[in-house]
Design a protein that fits this description.
mainly beta; 2 helices; about 45% strand; globular
Length: about 425
């Protein structure tokens, strides 16, 4: 009996190891809506991507899902790709042939290719990929936000954990440079006017100004931290976006003293706000501020304009007056946000700035031309809970486009059609869950 016990113990250990080696991975369903963190709408106006991050670790993978609006305007599933869990953000190349995705827990980046033609796109990994997704290009820990440079030869990736910046050569597919930023980067943007990059943080009231350029024998990265002049002490920029004309930046300062967007912070000396910034001479000038309430989440910008071309017919002119409402005439004067009119067909340009307020269960819509709140989308009366957080908007014309809202914690996505020429500016057309 004494000899039998060790033998049974060895058998049990070997049996357990065998079971573990044969344990099955948990694959998500093809149309997974699980902690969605990002969106992209193609230029065809009918096809879009969303990224399920699997932040709750419900499965062994995240998922990149391709969908299309059918002839009735309903979103229908096309196909999906498994991506490493936990996914962060994604960016799509300007020719809409490549998509890059960060994976926070696997500490790296994967890329997929987009093929086909408008209305019938396909997504896939490169041929020869072994397993469920290609080999991950390793970076520093917890990569999150990312963007491409002007010629898209370099991919700049930021890291949440320690605030590093990784520069990836998109052709050689290798990390060629790292630099140090402030902790907790929430967003990184490329400014074509200055050829600089700007990064926002949830750990300070600073914006990182980044110069990243190729030299004769090296790739150089230089970082300058720029403090923002705020009416109260504060920190935590949850989101930063370009204005429609590319001259300004909007920053959503949560500024509540709490890093948890779902928790109400102390009322002492807090001032959540949208700050309009202008980059000049390597410095950021505050153009406007708009005080808000609640814990702010992410932001999306929808650029709009009004046609004033000579060949516009009377009906178009009527629509333009509806868009302008009771604001100033569409001339070449400066708008309230510091931008100027006169681009595209000669009409004034402004932005609708959508800002999520998760703890108040709403999305605020701000008109930059007036620097004031125009409307809001409330979810308090919905049958199902929704704490909106991630937002994405894209215009498909002077006054029309789409808005995507991710109820991150509730695993639900709302899709809206935007039409400034109609009485109902934002109309819900679909729900993914």
């Amino acid at each position: 009996m004494k000899r039998l016990f060790p033998l049974l113990l060895v058998f049990f250990v070997l049996f357990s190891a065998s079971c573990d080696s044969e344990s099955k991975l948990i694959y998500p369903p093809e149309t997974l809506v699980n902690r969605v963190t990002d969106f992209y709408l193609f230029n065809d106006g009918r096809t879009f991507l969303y990224l399920s991050s699997n932040m709750n670790r419900k499965y062994d993978f995240g998922e990149l899902v391709l969908m299309r609006f059918d002839d009735e305007g309903d979103p229908v599933f096309q196909e999906s790709l498994l991506v490493p869990s936990i996914s962060g953000k994604m960016t799509v190349s300007s020719d809409e042939k490549s998509v890059f995705i960060t994976t926070r827990d696997k500490n790296g980046v994967v890329k997929a290719k987009i093929s086909g033609k408008p209305g019938s796109y396909k997504i896939q990994y490169e041929e020869g990929t072994k397993g469920d997704y290609p080999e991950i290009l390793k970076t520093k820990k917890e990569p999150y936000a990312l963007t491409l440079n002007a010629d898209e030869s370099k991919l700049l990736v930021t890291h949440v954990l320690n605030g590093e910046l990784s520069v990836i050569d998109t052709q050689k597919w290798e990390v060629i440079k790292t630099a140090k930023l402030k902790y907790g980067v929430t967003e990184i943007l490329y400014d074509a006017n200055s050829d600089y990059f700007l990064a926002s943080h949830k750990s300070s009231g600073n914006i990182s100004l980044i110069e990243a350029k190729e030299t004769l024998d090296d790739f150089v990265v230089a970082v300058k931290e720029i403090p923002i002049d705020l009416p109260t002490k504060g920190y935590d920029v949850r989101s930063m976006k370009h204005s429609g004309d590319g001259k300004l930046f909007y920053a959503a300062f949560q500024n509540t003293g709490s890093e948890d967007p779902y928790t109400n912070a102390s009322e002492e000396d807090t001032a959540p706000q949208i700050v309009t910034l202008k980059l000049e001479n390597n410095s950021l000038e505050t153009v406007n501020t708009l005080a808000l309430s609640g814990n702010l989440g992410e932001m999306a910008v929808f650029a709009y304009s009004t046609e004033t071309s000579d060949d516009s017919d009377n009906s178009d002119d009527a629509d333009d007056s509806d868009v302008l409402d009771d604001s100033e005439d569409a001339d070449d004067s400066d708008t309230a946000d510091g931008s100027t009119s006169g681009t595209k067909a000669g009409g004034r340009i402004g932005d609708l700035i959508f800002v999520s307020v998760p703890n108040d269960e709403k999305v605020i819509m701000i008109d930059s031309a007036r620097n004031s709140i125009r409307d809001e989308i409330s979810y308090k009366d919905d049958e199902k809970d929704c704490k909106p957080y991630q937002l994405y908007a894209k215009n498909l014309g002077n006054t029309s486009g789409y808005l995507f809202v991710s109820c991150f914690q509730n695993d639900r996505v709302y899709i809206y059609k935007i039409d400034l020429a109609s009485e109902q500016i934002v109309e819900k057309i679909g729900v993914l869950e």
